[in-house]
């Protein structure tokens, strides 16, 4: 993994405050857990029926009945609980999740999120994504700043089918930390070695820049 | 008094499934997927089935065997991302797929098992998943009518059971099993360990035997239940 991507994940980990209940989406967000200090007080939730996710285990040490929603073999911690899918999403829809970190295909300047379908190319179904995006108390996105072809993922409006409207609060990319504000995208922090001009060029909508040089990560 | 004995064999239980039946199948990934009942349904050969399952497992695993054998016409699910074969069937128009938000599928099944007609929710409003659904205004906010789901048959996997059909699960193998076990006209449970009445204590029971029609103990656990080597 590139160091910029690794620093993005490490920076995103600092978004998790002590005492939170957190769901980390499939893909990049699940790697955030590796950057939490040992003994950090947090309750990780996975929608297939576990609160209190412990470290990921290699196949030879795995329990065949203990996975996360992405299919990785995980473990429990003291105080973990198992539950069914209705209970799991009762937690999500009723606002028990303080934070969810999700991947994205596109994020719009108003916080709209598209992360589940590319018509004609990729349509595996939305799983629990809509409920997480719509109902977690805070939704942040963890994503590369551009797609593989170099096109901006941060756009004035989403072109792809939406997961949820106006749900994203903050975006962590390999180039910057960007907040969704009433005025649109606002840069808060910048990756080491990047210039404000580069970030603005790679963003598909106006980017509000800070008056003073922003912190780096 | 003594609680009735519902024990049977996998084959005898599966023999009740008819062409055209709707079949709920427990499981989220491997945990909780009734692999042996699924294999028996492949051997049984009932066709034109509607399956209701969270995911389509992975290629050559779980319900993928039923997709490969051409027994499934329609699949009500939430995510097919780990089964490229299922996605290919869908894209080729050979499998009719209805996607649900995951927790909404759970609630539709729970409602079906609880004797309710529907649940109301604001999940997915303004997205593709709302298309075609009835909208009702509740306290000034639009809600989608998510109709209850029941099936002709439910195939359940539990860790332990007694002869009355009281069930207990383990780990993340609960998922949709306790919900589906309440939502079908004929509920068939495969169990890793079958215990005499009383050995599963009243407090340990997670699915009450009243909901369960047939219980079959697994003689062995096939390779499909094992940790997936990726």
From TrEMBL, chain A:
Instruction: Identify its protein family.
Output: Belongs to the 3-oxoacid CoA-transferase subunit B family.
Task: Give the InterPro entries listed for this entry.
Answer: 3-oxoacid_CoA-transf_B, CoA_trans_fam_I, NagB/RpiA_transferase-like
What name does this protein carry?
3-oxoacid CoA-transferase subunit B
Query: Which residues are in coiled coils?
Result: none
Q: Which UniProt keywords apply?
A: Transferase
In alphabetical order, the GO MF annotations are:
CoA-transferase activity
TrEMBL record, chain B:
Record Gene3D superfamilies: Glutaconate Coenzyme A-transferase
GO MF terms listed in the record are:
CoA-transferase activity
Pfam families membership: CoA_trans
Q: Which SMART domains match?
A: CoA_trans (SM00882)
**Cross-referenced PROSITE patterns, in alphabetical order?**
COA_TRANSF_1
Highest taxon, organism lineage: Bacteria
Q: Which InterPro entries match?
A: 3-oxoacid_CoA-transf_A, CoA_trans_fam_I, CoA_transf_BS, NagB/RpiA_transferase-like
Q: What are the entry keywords?
A: Transferase
Q: Which PANTHER family match?
A: ACETATE COA-TRANSFERASE SUBUNIT ALPHA (PTHR13707:SF60), KETOACID-COENZYME A TRANSFERASE (PTHR13707)
Q: Name the family the entry cites.
A: Belongs to the 3-oxoacid CoA-transferase subunit A family.
NCBIfam families with a match to the protein in the record: pcaI_scoA_fam
What's the protein name?
Acetate CoA/acetoacetate CoA-transferase alpha subunit
